[in-house]
Every structure is written in C-alpha cells, then in structure tokens.
Amino acid sequence: MTDLWLYGALLILAGVLFLVWPVWKARRQRNTVDRTALNVALYEERVAELGAQREAGEISAELHDIALEEAGKLLLEDTAKADEARRPTHRGSPIALLVAAAALPLVVVGLYLSWGNPAGLQLLREMQNDPMPADLVAYIDRMERITEVQPQNGEVWYMLGRAYLAQQRPADAANAFGNSMDLMGVHPEVLAQYAQARFFANDNKLDSEAADALSRALEMNPNEPTALGLLGINAFEAGDYAGAISYWERLQAGMPPGSEGFTAIQGGIDRARERMGEPADSAAEGPQIAVRIELAAELAEQYPDDAVVFVSARQPQGPPMPLLALRLNKSELPVEVALNSSHALMPGRSLEPGQALQISARISTDSDVRNAGHQSEAAEVKVGEQDGAVVLQIDRGM
C-alpha cells in the first residue's frame, strides 16, 4: 500500500498548497505595501535634502525644481504599481485558512479509513504477490480476513468451512456453511457439508438439524456423495448395516470402478457385510497398518472412560490434514486396530504399498481434538513394511 499512501500524500499536499496560497500571496502584497511606504519616506528625505542644498547654495533654484519633479515622478510610478498589486487582496485574518490547511490531511485520512477499504486493498496486493498460502493455517487466516472484508461473499464462507473441516474444527465449519447458505441460498453440496460438520461436532452423531439437511440435500440431488457417505456412516455406527450398504452402494454407483474412492467405499461395504455374517465382496481390504494404542498408567485416572482417543495418519511432509482417522473411547484401551482405506477422511483416498505415513494418537475429555491433553510420540511407517503392530503410547503432554 506504499504507492497508495504516496499518491494520497501528494494529493493532500496539493490541497494544502491550494489553501495556503492566498495567505502567502497576501503576505507578498503586504511586503509590497511596506516597500511603498519606505519609498514615500525616502521621497520626503530627498525633498528635505534638496531644500538644504538649495539653501546652502549647492544647487540653483532651477536644478532644485528639476530634481524635485523627478523624485515626484518616481514616487508616483512606484505608488501606482503598489496600488495595482493591492487590488485583488482581501481583508481578513488568514487563521481560518491555516487551520483548514492543517486539518485537511486529518480529515482526508479519517474519511478514507471510515469509507475506504484499506484491508481489502491489502488483501488484494497479498493475493497478487502470494496466490497460494504456504499451509492450511495461512489459508484459513486469509479466508477469515476475506470474510471480514466481504462478509456477504457466500462462496468464501463455503471455502472457509471446508478449510475448518480439514483442520478438524467442525463447530466453526458448521457456522461457516450456515453463513454460506444464508447468502447463496440452499444448495445440496452445502447442505451435505453443513450436516457433516454438525455430525463431527456432535461426537459422530446426527442431530435433527443435520438429518434434515441431509434429507433436503438428497431431495435436491439423490446422488449427492457427501450425504450418501455420511448417511452410510451413521447407519453403520447405529448397527444398521443393511442401510449402510444401501447408501454406500448408491455412492459407489457414481464412481469409476477400480478408482481409489470406489475401493475405499468397498472396504466399508465389506466391513458391514462381515458384521452381518455375510462374505465380503472383496477378498481383503487392501493395504493396512496394524496399530496398538495404549494409555500410560499414570494418566488413566485423569480421563473418564468416555474420553475420546483420536488416531490419525498423515503424510510426514504434507499438509496437517490427516489422510486416515479413527476415534475410540478410553474404555477400549489398550486396543489393536488395523488402519486401512476405509478410514480415509476424504473419498478417493486409499493406502498404497510403501506409502510413508506419520501416525499418532491423542486423548481428549471431549470430541474436539484441539482440546486434547496428552498425545503419543509420532511414529513414521511405510505401508506393508512394518514388522508387527506400531505401538502408540499416550504419555506426553500437549
């Protein structure tokens, strides 16, 4: 914004000069009047001097008259010039103009800060110089500032909600999606994202508002993928395995067979069929990582049995958003689980043999991972190459 303030300063300077110019001009005119008065005094001295010379006999009466006439002509010419210079002057105090000149910069800056949009201009320059933020935290910070500058931009609220979900802030995400719908109207994908955020914020349970949002989303788009996936998860958690399979098969129908998303959903379908005592369609769930989660004995009494344990796997040098995530209760520990593509947070993500992952576990008294009090040391593994289960012992303070 340096150039903006530079141009603004030049304009303010021009305005100040416009106000100060009459005062400066009047001062010059007063200087002219002062010089005329001096010339009159000099004329009088010249007349006295000529009179003294005549009385002393230094000059004749004729020369005295000639010199006196010449001095009078010079005085008249100077007086005429002074009168001409004084005609445009206006009487009055210059204080008002000087005060106005001093107040002008303050008024201009104040009006710009009140009516202008310096924050928006700063964001525009920032986005031009750095189109892609370095990480998720920087991206969210930028989106939040954009919503402050453009609170009526529903698209930005939607993007901010997606980013909040990636940062595991479901309550904030639900508010952002709600703002988006208020501004852009109701769209099936936004309804589904709103319901998903409320689902995660409510400890993986659908409340009445989230269920209504999913119902409306499917009415508008019967194949809305987020809605079908979420309803499948909810049915699975409720023990309605047939319902989960029905939703997930509808979701699979819109995916290319053999794609990563198709394979991930198939893993969930296979697990549901196993729970029903039926054979799985696929022989195996694909690559997986065996993980054992333990809680240090000295921490056991600090957390209730319903405390939430978060297990996540992310790329070691990638974004903070996990690729895989699993929630458990403290009462289930110690436990050994197999992380696979069915635990992917986003459709289309699956594990690949030899893929490097960083796995960690945290424990929190509520369903918000940001409130976790203790965690395990992160373990880096490669899919299919670990020898036995990876042990994650939760024993470190956050």
From TrEMBL:
First-listed, main subcellular location of the protein, grouped into a coarse class: other
Gene3D superfamilies per UniProt: Tetratricopeptide repeat domain
Transmembrane regions listed in the UniProt entry: 6-24, 95-115
Domain of life: Bacteria
Localization annotation: Cell envelope
InterPro entries: C-type_cytochrome_biogenesis (IPR051263), Cyt_c_biogenesis_CcmI (IPR017560), Ig_CycH (IPR056412), TPR-like_helical_dom_sf (IPR011990), TPR_CcmH_CycH (IPR056413)
PANTHER family assigned to the protein according to its UniProt record, in alphabetical order: CYTOCHROME C-TYPE BIOGENESIS PROTEIN CCMH, CYTOCHROME C-TYPE BIOGENESIS PROTEIN CYCH
Protein name: Cytochrome c-type biogenesis protein CycH
Species, as recorded: Halopseudomonas pertucinogena
Organism lineage: Bacteria, Pseudomonadati, Pseudomonadota, Gammaproteobacteria, Pseudomonadales
Protein encoded by which gene: cycH
